[in-house]
What does this fold into?
Amino acid sequence: MTRAALFLCVCAPALAGAAAEPLVIRNANVLTVTKGRFKGSILIRGGKIAEAGERIMVPVGTKEMDAAGQYIMPGIVDPHSHIASDSVNESSMSVSSMVRIEDVLDPTDIALYRALAGGVTTVAILHGSANAIGGQCAVIKTRWGKDAPGIVFEGAKPLLKLALGENPKRRGSAPPGTPGAPAPRYPGTRMGVEDVIRQAFTEAKAYRDAWRTYEEQRSKGMDVLPPRRDFKLEPLVAVLEGRMLVHAHAYRADEILMMLRVGKEFGFKIDALVHALEGYKVAKEIAAHGAGATTFSDWWAYKMEAADAIPYNATLMLRKGVLVSLNSDSAELMRHMNTEAAKAVKYGGATEDEALAMITINAARQLGLEARIGSIEPGKDADLVIFDKDPLSNYAKVQRVLIDGEVYFDRGRDLSERAAREQRRKALIEKEKQRAEAEKKAARRP
It folds into this structure.
Protein backbone atom coordinates (compact mmCIF):
# COMPACT_ATOMS: atom_id res chain seq x y z
CA MET A 1 0.00 0.00 0.00
CA THR A 2 1.48 3.37 -1.03
CA ARG A 3 1.94 6.34 1.29
CA ALA A 4 -0.64 8.32 -0.70
CA ALA A 5 -3.13 5.46 -0.48
CA LEU A 6 -2.62 5.27 3.28
CA PHE A 7 -3.15 9.01 3.57
CA LEU A 8 -6.32 8.74 1.50
CA CYS A 9 -7.62 5.95 3.75
CA VAL A 10 -7.23 8.04 6.88
CA CYS A 11 -8.42 11.35 5.40
CA ALA A 12 -11.34 10.33 3.18
CA PRO A 13 -13.90 10.08 6.01
CA ALA A 14 -13.27 13.75 6.84
CA LEU A 15 -14.75 14.94 3.55
CA ALA A 16 -18.09 16.64 3.29
CA GLY A 17 -21.19 14.78 2.22
CA ALA A 18 -22.17 14.08 -1.37
CA ALA A 19 -24.79 16.86 -1.48
CA ALA A 20 -23.77 20.29 -0.21
CA GLU A 21 -26.37 21.86 2.07
CA PRO A 22 -27.15 25.61 1.84
CA LEU A 23 -24.43 27.66 3.52
CA VAL A 24 -23.79 31.33 4.20
CA ILE A 25 -20.30 32.62 4.91
CA ARG A 26 -20.50 35.84 6.92
CA ASN A 27 -18.10 38.58 8.03
CA ALA A 28 -15.66 38.08 5.17
CA ASN A 29 -13.36 40.30 3.16
CA VAL A 30 -14.52 39.14 -0.27
CA LEU A 31 -12.18 39.44 -3.25
CA THR A 32 -14.44 38.80 -6.24
CA VAL A 33 -11.59 39.45 -8.77
CA THR A 34 -14.02 40.72 -11.42
CA LYS A 35 -16.52 42.80 -9.39
CA GLY A 36 -14.33 44.52 -6.85
CA ARG A 37 -13.98 43.92 -3.13
CA PHE A 38 -16.37 44.23 -0.21
CA LYS A 39 -16.94 43.19 3.39
CA GLY A 40 -19.98 40.98 3.55
CA SER A 41 -21.39 37.53 2.95
CA ILE A 42 -21.68 34.78 0.35
CA LEU A 43 -24.73 32.52 0.10
CA ILE A 44 -24.17 29.05 -1.37
CA ARG A 45 -27.02 26.87 -2.57
CA GLY A 46 -26.84 23.65 -4.60
CA GLY A 47 -23.07 23.92 -4.95
CA LYS A 48 -23.38 27.34 -6.62
CA ILE A 49 -22.91 30.91 -5.47
CA ALA A 50 -26.48 32.13 -5.03
CA GLU A 51 -25.71 35.63 -3.80
CA ALA A 52 -22.75 37.72 -2.68
CA GLY A 53 -22.75 41.22 -1.23
CA GLU A 54 -22.46 43.50 1.76
CA ARG A 55 -26.03 42.66 2.76
CA ILE A 56 -27.85 39.64 1.44
CA MET A 57 -31.09 37.83 2.17
CA VAL A 58 -30.49 34.46 3.85
CA PRO A 59 -33.23 31.83 4.21
CA VAL A 60 -34.10 30.82 7.77
CA GLY A 61 -32.26 27.71 8.90
CA THR A 62 -29.29 28.15 6.54
CA LYS A 63 -26.05 26.80 7.98
CA GLU A 64 -23.62 29.60 8.85
CA MET A 65 -19.84 29.90 8.72
CA ASP A 66 -18.21 32.93 10.36
CA ALA A 67 -15.16 34.07 8.40
CA ALA A 68 -14.24 36.44 11.24
CA GLY A 69 -12.80 39.06 8.93
CA GLN A 70 -10.68 36.62 6.93
CA TYR A 71 -10.25 36.84 3.16
CA ILE A 72 -12.24 34.86 0.60
CA MET A 73 -11.20 34.59 -3.03
CA PRO A 74 -12.18 32.30 -5.92
CA GLY A 75 -10.55 28.88 -6.02
CA ILE A 76 -7.14 29.03 -7.70
CA VAL A 77 -7.01 27.66 -11.25
CA ASP A 78 -3.75 26.07 -12.41
CA PRO A 79 -3.77 25.69 -16.23
CA HIS A 80 -0.59 23.60 -16.47
CA SER A 81 0.24 20.64 -14.25
CA HIS A 82 1.15 16.97 -14.50
CA ILE A 83 0.02 15.73 -11.09
CA ALA A 84 -2.51 12.94 -10.50
CA SER A 85 -1.60 11.08 -13.68
CA ASP A 86 0.02 7.67 -14.11
CA SER A 87 1.53 8.77 -17.44
CA VAL A 88 2.72 12.09 -18.82
CA ASN A 89 4.32 11.50 -22.23
CA GLU A 90 3.59 8.97 -24.96
CA SER A 91 6.99 9.70 -26.44
CA SER A 92 7.30 6.77 -28.83
CA MET A 93 5.91 8.86 -31.70
CA SER A 94 5.79 12.51 -32.71
CA VAL A 95 2.01 12.72 -32.98
CA SER A 96 0.12 11.13 -30.11
CA SER A 97 -3.20 12.98 -30.26
CA MET A 98 -5.11 9.72 -29.79
CA VAL A 99 -4.06 9.23 -26.14
CA ARG A 100 -6.01 10.73 -23.22
CA ILE A 101 -4.81 11.81 -19.81
CA GLU A 102 -8.30 11.19 -18.44
CA ASP A 103 -7.72 7.45 -18.94
CA VAL A 104 -4.77 7.43 -16.50
CA LEU A 105 -5.85 9.80 -13.72
CA ASP A 106 -4.63 8.86 -10.25
CA PRO A 107 -6.89 10.38 -7.54
CA THR A 108 -4.64 8.99 -4.76
CA ASP A 109 -1.68 11.22 -5.72
CA ILE A 110 -0.78 13.10 -2.53
CA ALA A 111 -0.02 16.17 -4.67
CA LEU A 112 -3.78 16.60 -5.07
CA TYR A 113 -4.25 17.11 -1.34
CA ARG A 114 -1.25 19.43 -1.11
CA ALA A 115 -2.57 21.52 -4.01
CA LEU A 116 -5.97 21.65 -2.32
CA ALA A 117 -4.32 22.83 0.90
CA GLY A 118 -2.75 25.64 -1.14
CA GLY A 119 -6.12 26.82 -2.40
CA VAL A 120 -6.03 25.21 -5.85
CA THR A 121 -9.47 23.93 -6.84
CA THR A 122 -9.17 23.40 -10.62
CA VAL A 123 -6.19 21.94 -12.49
CA ALA A 124 -5.52 21.27 -16.16
CA ILE A 125 -3.55 18.02 -16.28
CA LEU A 126 -1.63 18.33 -19.53
CA HIS A 127 0.04 15.70 -21.66
CA GLY A 128 3.80 16.24 -21.65
CA SER A 129 5.89 18.09 -24.21
CA ALA A 130 7.85 15.20 -25.71
CA ASN A 131 5.68 15.31 -28.84
CA ALA A 132 5.09 17.98 -31.45
CA ILE A 133 1.44 17.05 -31.06
CA GLY A 134 0.77 15.46 -27.71
CA GLY A 135 -2.30 13.89 -26.21
CA GLN A 136 -5.68 15.06 -24.98
CA CYS A 137 -5.56 16.71 -21.57
CA ALA A 138 -7.89 16.45 -18.58
CA VAL A 139 -9.33 19.22 -16.42
CA ILE A 140 -10.04 18.20 -12.84
CA LYS A 141 -11.19 19.59 -9.53
CA THR A 142 -9.14 18.75 -6.46
CA ARG A 143 -11.92 16.74 -4.81
CA TRP A 144 -9.61 14.76 -2.51
CA GLY A 145 -11.15 11.45 -1.55
CA LYS A 146 -13.12 10.93 -4.76
CA ASP A 147 -12.37 8.30 -7.38
CA ALA A 148 -10.97 9.11 -10.84
CA PRO A 149 -14.34 9.97 -12.46
CA GLY A 150 -15.18 11.95 -9.33
CA ILE A 151 -12.33 14.44 -9.78
CA VAL A 152 -13.03 15.11 -13.47
CA PHE A 153 -14.41 18.61 -14.14
CA GLU A 154 -17.80 17.86 -15.63
CA GLY A 155 -18.47 19.74 -18.86
CA ALA A 156 -14.91 21.01 -19.32
CA LYS A 157 -13.95 21.68 -22.93
CA PRO A 158 -11.63 19.18 -24.66
CA LEU A 159 -8.01 20.31 -24.76
CA LEU A 160 -5.06 19.23 -26.94
CA LYS A 161 -1.39 19.80 -26.12
CA LEU A 162 1.16 20.86 -28.74
CA ALA A 163 4.87 21.45 -28.11
CA LEU A 164 7.77 23.26 -29.78
CA GLY A 165 11.49 23.53 -29.19
CA GLU A 166 13.93 21.40 -27.25
CA ASN A 167 11.57 18.82 -25.82
CA PRO A 168 9.89 17.40 -28.96
CA LYS A 169 13.15 17.42 -30.95
CA ARG A 170 15.26 15.79 -28.23
CA ARG A 171 14.52 12.19 -29.25
CA GLY A 172 15.75 12.88 -32.77
CA SER A 173 18.74 15.10 -32.05
CA ALA A 174 20.98 12.94 -29.84
CA PRO A 175 24.33 12.27 -31.56
CA PRO A 176 24.67 8.73 -32.96
CA GLY A 177 26.07 6.32 -30.42
CA THR A 178 25.13 8.41 -27.37
CA PRO A 179 25.08 5.97 -24.39
CA GLY A 180 21.60 5.43 -23.03
CA ALA A 181 19.92 7.46 -25.76
CA PRO A 182 16.61 6.00 -27.07
CA ALA A 183 16.16 5.13 -30.73
CA PRO A 184 16.12 8.32 -32.82
CA ARG A 185 12.73 9.68 -33.81
CA TYR A 186 11.79 12.40 -36.27
CA PRO A 187 11.94 15.37 -35.77
CA GLY A 188 15.45 16.22 -34.67
CA THR A 189 15.34 19.95 -35.38
CA ARG A 190 13.04 22.91 -34.76
CA MET A 191 12.13 23.09 -38.44
CA GLY A 192 11.20 19.41 -38.26
CA VAL A 193 8.82 20.12 -35.38
CA GLU A 194 6.96 22.63 -37.52
CA ASP A 195 6.81 20.16 -40.39
CA VAL A 196 5.29 17.47 -38.15
CA ILE A 197 2.54 19.84 -37.03
CA ARG A 198 1.77 21.12 -40.53
CA GLN A 199 1.73 17.62 -42.00
CA ALA A 200 -0.59 16.32 -39.28
CA PHE A 201 -3.12 19.11 -39.80
CA THR A 202 -2.90 18.67 -43.58
CA GLU A 203 -3.86 15.02 -43.08
CA ALA A 204 -6.63 16.08 -40.69
CA LYS A 205 -8.12 18.42 -43.31
CA ALA A 206 -8.17 15.59 -45.87
CA TYR A 207 -9.75 13.28 -43.28
CA ARG A 208 -12.42 15.87 -42.47
CA ASP A 209 -13.18 16.40 -46.14
CA ALA A 210 -13.52 12.65 -46.70
CA TRP A 211 -16.12 12.44 -43.94
CA ARG A 212 -17.97 15.47 -45.28
CA THR A 213 -18.11 13.90 -48.72
CA TYR A 214 -19.42 10.68 -47.20
CA GLU A 215 -22.14 12.47 -45.24
CA GLU A 216 -23.16 14.45 -48.32
CA GLN A 217 -23.40 11.31 -50.46
CA ARG A 218 -25.34 9.46 -47.79
CA SER A 219 -27.82 12.35 -47.48
CA LYS A 220 -28.53 11.87 -51.20
CA GLY A 221 -29.38 8.23 -50.64
CA MET A 222 -26.17 6.85 -52.07
CA ASP A 223 -24.95 3.49 -50.76
CA VAL A 224 -21.36 4.31 -49.80
CA LEU A 225 -18.88 3.02 -47.24
CA PRO A 226 -17.74 5.45 -44.52
CA PRO A 227 -14.06 6.40 -44.32
CA ARG A 228 -11.97 4.36 -41.93
CA ARG A 229 -11.91 6.00 -38.49
CA ASP A 230 -8.59 7.49 -37.40
CA PHE A 231 -8.33 8.25 -33.67
CA LYS A 232 -5.15 10.23 -34.27
CA LEU A 233 -6.82 12.62 -36.72
CA GLU A 234 -10.22 13.00 -35.04
CA PRO A 235 -8.89 15.32 -32.30
CA LEU A 236 -7.14 17.42 -34.94
CA VAL A 237 -10.41 17.75 -36.86
CA ALA A 238 -12.02 18.88 -33.60
CA VAL A 239 -9.33 21.58 -33.38
CA LEU A 240 -9.96 22.67 -36.98
CA GLU A 241 -13.68 22.90 -36.26
CA GLY A 242 -13.22 24.82 -33.01
CA ARG A 243 -14.49 22.00 -30.80
CA MET A 244 -11.17 21.42 -29.01
CA LEU A 245 -8.88 23.97 -27.37
CA VAL A 246 -5.15 24.15 -28.12
CA HIS A 247 -2.41 24.84 -25.56
CA ALA A 248 1.04 25.00 -27.14
CA HIS A 249 4.30 24.62 -25.19
CA ALA A 250 6.62 27.35 -26.52
CA TYR A 251 9.52 29.30 -25.04
CA ARG A 252 11.25 31.33 -27.74
CA ALA A 253 9.84 34.33 -29.58
CA ASP A 254 10.63 32.90 -33.02
CA GLU A 255 8.77 29.67 -32.27
CA ILE A 256 5.83 31.54 -30.79
CA LEU A 257 5.50 33.43 -34.09
CA MET A 258 5.82 30.17 -36.03
CA MET A 259 2.99 28.60 -34.03
CA LEU A 260 0.77 31.63 -34.58
CA ARG A 261 1.42 31.43 -38.34
CA VAL A 262 0.57 27.73 -38.44
CA GLY A 263 -2.63 28.37 -36.53
CA LYS A 264 -3.59 31.12 -38.97
CA GLU A 265 -2.75 28.92 -41.97
CA PHE A 266 -5.05 26.13 -40.81
CA GLY A 267 -7.72 28.39 -39.34
CA PHE A 268 -7.52 27.60 -35.62
CA LYS A 269 -6.64 29.72 -32.60
CA ILE A 270 -3.92 29.00 -30.07
CA ASP A 271 -5.90 29.36 -26.85
CA ALA A 272 -2.80 29.49 -24.67
CA LEU A 273 0.94 29.55 -25.22
CA VAL A 274 2.42 27.52 -22.37
CA HIS A 275 5.56 28.99 -20.76
CA ALA A 276 5.96 31.83 -23.32
CA LEU A 277 9.05 33.07 -21.46
CA GLU A 278 9.97 35.29 -24.42
CA GLY A 279 6.38 36.38 -24.88
CA TYR A 280 7.26 39.95 -23.90
CA LYS A 281 9.25 40.22 -27.15
CA VAL A 282 6.24 39.43 -29.35
CA ALA A 283 3.34 40.43 -27.10
CA LYS A 284 1.63 42.53 -29.79
CA GLU A 285 1.58 39.58 -32.17
CA ILE A 286 0.23 37.25 -29.48
CA ALA A 287 -2.55 39.70 -28.67
CA ALA A 288 -3.39 40.20 -32.36
CA HIS A 289 -3.85 36.44 -32.79
CA GLY A 290 -6.13 36.34 -29.75
CA ALA A 291 -3.91 33.85 -27.98
CA GLY A 292 -3.43 33.69 -24.25
CA ALA A 293 -0.16 33.03 -22.43
CA THR A 294 0.34 31.02 -19.26
CA THR A 295 3.77 31.59 -17.81
CA PHE A 296 5.98 31.43 -14.72
CA SER A 297 6.45 34.37 -12.39
CA ASP A 298 10.25 34.34 -12.25
CA TRP A 299 11.72 30.99 -13.32
CA TRP A 300 14.64 31.43 -15.69
CA ALA A 301 17.91 29.92 -16.95
CA TYR A 302 16.99 26.34 -16.06
CA LYS A 303 17.62 25.46 -19.71
CA MET A 304 18.80 27.30 -22.84
CA GLU A 305 15.27 28.16 -23.96
CA ALA A 306 14.74 29.99 -20.67
CA ALA A 307 17.88 32.13 -20.87
CA ASP A 308 16.01 35.31 -21.85
CA ALA A 309 13.21 34.97 -19.29
CA ILE A 310 12.50 38.03 -17.15
CA PRO A 311 10.21 38.44 -14.10
CA TYR A 312 8.40 41.33 -15.82
CA ASN A 313 7.15 39.04 -18.59
CA ALA A 314 3.63 38.49 -17.26
CA THR A 315 2.85 42.15 -16.69
CA LEU A 316 4.46 43.31 -19.93
CA MET A 317 2.30 40.89 -21.93
CA LEU A 318 -0.76 41.94 -19.93
CA ARG A 319 -0.14 45.60 -20.79
CA LYS A 320 -0.03 44.70 -24.49
CA GLY A 321 -3.46 43.10 -24.33
CA VAL A 322 -2.53 39.44 -23.86
CA LEU A 323 -4.71 37.24 -21.64
CA VAL A 324 -2.09 36.19 -19.09
CA SER A 325 -2.20 33.51 -16.40
CA LEU A 326 0.40 31.96 -14.13
CA ASN A 327 0.89 28.21 -13.85
CA SER A 328 2.90 25.85 -11.70
CA ASP A 329 4.12 22.94 -13.87
CA SER A 330 5.27 21.72 -10.46
CA ALA A 331 3.64 19.81 -7.62
CA GLU A 332 5.55 21.97 -5.15
CA LEU A 333 5.00 25.37 -6.75
CA MET A 334 1.23 24.88 -7.02
CA ARG A 335 1.04 24.82 -3.21
CA HIS A 336 1.68 28.59 -3.08
CA MET A 337 0.31 30.07 -6.30
CA ASN A 338 -0.94 33.07 -4.34
CA THR A 339 2.62 34.24 -3.70
CA GLU A 340 3.47 33.63 -7.36
CA ALA A 341 0.69 36.08 -8.20
CA ALA A 342 2.12 38.57 -5.71
CA LYS A 343 5.35 38.66 -7.75
CA ALA A 344 3.41 40.21 -10.63
CA VAL A 345 2.73 43.18 -8.36
CA LYS A 346 6.41 43.48 -7.41
CA TYR A 347 7.72 42.96 -10.94
CA GLY A 348 5.95 45.21 -13.42
CA GLY A 349 3.44 46.88 -11.14
CA ALA A 350 0.32 44.80 -11.80
CA THR A 351 -2.59 45.79 -9.58
CA GLU A 352 -3.64 43.37 -6.86
CA ASP A 353 -6.79 42.41 -8.76
CA GLU A 354 -4.79 41.92 -11.97
CA ALA A 355 -2.41 39.63 -10.08
CA LEU A 356 -5.24 37.59 -8.58
CA ALA A 357 -6.86 37.34 -12.03
CA MET A 358 -3.71 35.62 -13.29
CA ILE A 359 -4.41 32.64 -11.00
CA THR A 360 -8.20 32.67 -11.29
CA ILE A 361 -10.37 34.18 -14.03
CA ASN A 362 -7.66 34.49 -16.70
CA ALA A 363 -6.70 30.84 -16.33
CA ALA A 364 -10.41 29.92 -16.39
CA ARG A 365 -10.83 31.84 -19.66
CA GLN A 366 -7.89 30.01 -21.21
CA LEU A 367 -9.69 26.76 -20.38
CA GLY A 368 -13.05 28.03 -21.66
CA LEU A 369 -14.51 27.76 -18.14
CA GLU A 370 -15.02 31.42 -17.22
CA ALA A 371 -18.79 30.91 -16.95
CA ARG A 372 -18.25 28.32 -14.19
CA ILE A 373 -15.18 29.33 -12.18
CA GLY A 374 -12.57 32.03 -11.66
CA SER A 375 -14.54 34.75 -9.86
CA ILE A 376 -17.10 35.21 -7.11
CA GLU A 377 -20.34 35.86 -8.93
CA PRO A 378 -23.88 34.47 -8.59
CA GLY A 379 -24.42 31.34 -10.66
CA LYS A 380 -20.81 30.20 -10.62
CA ASP A 381 -19.50 27.07 -8.91
CA ALA A 382 -18.93 27.68 -5.20
CA ASP A 383 -15.18 27.02 -5.40
CA LEU A 384 -13.79 29.29 -2.69
CA VAL A 385 -10.61 29.72 -0.64
CA ILE A 386 -10.47 31.34 2.78
CA PHE A 387 -7.12 32.89 3.79
CA ASP A 388 -6.32 34.27 7.22
CA LYS A 389 -4.62 37.29 5.64
CA ASP A 390 -4.63 39.00 2.26
CA PRO A 391 -3.79 36.21 -0.25
CA LEU A 392 -0.95 38.26 -1.73
CA SER A 393 0.86 38.36 1.61
CA ASN A 394 3.78 36.01 2.19
CA TYR A 395 2.28 35.29 5.59
CA ALA A 396 -1.18 34.26 4.33
CA LYS A 397 -2.25 30.69 5.05
CA VAL A 398 -5.20 28.80 3.63
CA GLN A 399 -7.76 28.06 6.33
CA ARG A 400 -10.55 26.39 4.36
CA VAL A 401 -11.23 25.35 0.77
CA LEU A 402 -14.70 24.75 -0.64
CA ILE A 403 -15.41 23.00 -3.93
CA ASP A 404 -18.97 23.00 -5.24
CA GLY A 405 -19.99 24.35 -1.84
CA GLU A 406 -18.42 21.49 0.14
CA VAL A 407 -15.52 21.92 2.55
CA TYR A 408 -12.71 19.73 1.22
CA PHE A 409 -9.92 21.23 3.31
CA ASP A 410 -10.01 22.66 6.82
CA ARG A 411 -6.64 23.63 8.25
CA GLY A 412 -7.78 23.47 11.88
CA ARG A 413 -9.27 20.04 11.42
CA ASP A 414 -6.21 18.82 9.53
CA LEU A 415 -3.90 19.86 12.36
CA SER A 416 -6.11 18.47 15.13
CA GLU A 417 -6.48 15.08 13.44
CA ARG A 418 -2.83 14.48 12.55
CA ALA A 419 -2.00 12.47 15.67
CA ALA A 420 -5.02 10.19 15.20
CA ARG A 421 -4.21 9.80 11.51
CA GLU A 422 -0.65 8.82 12.33
CA GLN A 423 -1.86 6.17 14.77
CA ARG A 424 -4.26 4.79 12.19
CA ARG A 425 -1.51 4.84 9.56
CA LYS A 426 0.79 2.80 11.81
CA ALA A 427 -2.02 0.35 12.52
CA LEU A 428 -2.65 -0.12 8.80
CA ILE A 429 1.06 -0.66 8.14
CA GLU A 430 1.26 -3.22 10.94
CA LYS A 431 -1.82 -5.00 9.63
CA GLU A 432 -0.23 -5.14 6.17
CA LYS A 433 2.99 -6.57 7.63
CA GLN A 434 1.07 -9.25 9.48
CA ARG A 435 -0.85 -10.17 6.34
CA ALA A 436 2.38 -10.43 4.32
CA GLU A 437 4.01 -12.58 7.03
CA ALA A 438 0.97 -14.88 7.13
CA GLU A 439 1.19 -15.33 3.35
CA LYS A 440 4.89 -16.22 3.61
CA LYS A 441 4.19 -18.85 6.28
CA ALA A 442 1.36 -20.30 4.23
CA ALA A 443 3.63 -20.50 1.19
CA ARG A 444 6.22 -22.53 3.17
CA ARG A 445 3.73 -25.23 4.09
CA PRO A 446 4.02 -28.45 2.06
Notes: Residues 76-174+182-373 form a domain with the TIM Barrel fold (CATH 3.20.20.140).
